[in-house]
Amino acid sequence: MTTVLKLGGSVITEKETPETVDDAALQRASAALGGSSGRLAVVHGGGSFGHHYAASHGVSTTAGTRDDVAIREIHGAMKRLNAAVIDALVETGVPAVPVHPFSGAYRRSDGTLRFPEGAVATTLEEGFVPVLHGDVVAHATEGATILSGDELVVALAEALSADRVGVCSAVSGVYDADGEVIAHIDSFDDVAAAVGASDETDVTGGMAGKVRTLLSLDAPASVFGVDGLGAFLDGDDPGTRIG
Ligand code: IP8
Prior knowledge:
Layout: E1 2-7, H1 9-12, H2 23-34, E2 39-44, H3 47-56, H4 68-91, E3 96-98, E4 106-107, E5 113-114, H5 117-125, E6 129-133, E7 135-139, E8 143-147, H6 149-159, E9 164-168, E10 184-185, H7 188-195, H8 206-215, E11 221-224, H9 229-233, E12 240-242
Parallel strand pairs: 1-2, 1-9, 2-6, 3-6, 4-7, 9-11, 10-12
Antiparallel strand pairs: 4-5, 7-8, 11-12
Helix pairs in contact: 2-4, 3-4
The protein binds Isopentenyl phosphate.
Isopentenyl phosphate binds next to α3, α4, β7 and α6.
Site (Transition state stabilizer): 15
Organism: Natronomonas aquatica
Subunit structure: Homodimer.
């Protein structure tokens, strides 16, 4: 059983204060992961680390930069967050190891992502828990652009033929127009009015983008809050099941 899990940046950091880990939330998430079994690849988002520097340098998934200072600042912040996540996971007995996308992933000029999937697959097969993160990556003809954790989750899930995908977010699931968590989504059209419009090519477009992208996966996905993480890792479907 291979599981790809995203820990949202807004879950594990205090989003309003630059470079601040939400220690309590990270410890809760790590404690849940400490009890999990099977093959697990973790991806975390940027929260108050990467997004802060990406915004200050005007870099996004589509707006590139040729400024090496910007690349070092964004990547450096993400490495610091990654180290904090790994430290917390190691404390709970998870054999977590870092995988930094900038060192091996890149985009072609048409925006398609290439990343070292063999390295991640081998790391998993050898019993480690690779911990990847949203990052800045070289982008042919654009300099460098942002790779979001969501995009990485989808690419990893496909490359590893994951059995399950989990997105641990700051909210308890996908909400309907009345503010109730939707238990199951199998068609974007059914929830489009509730989650808002989404550009089909935008994988980082908030909840609408997440739903659309997760629906395109072969593996079932779940969106849940940190309270649901333990249940998800035990094989349940907390929050919203997508697909
Ligand atoms: O928080 C963004 O990843 P996300 C990563 O998953 C950076 O969108 C570097 C801003």
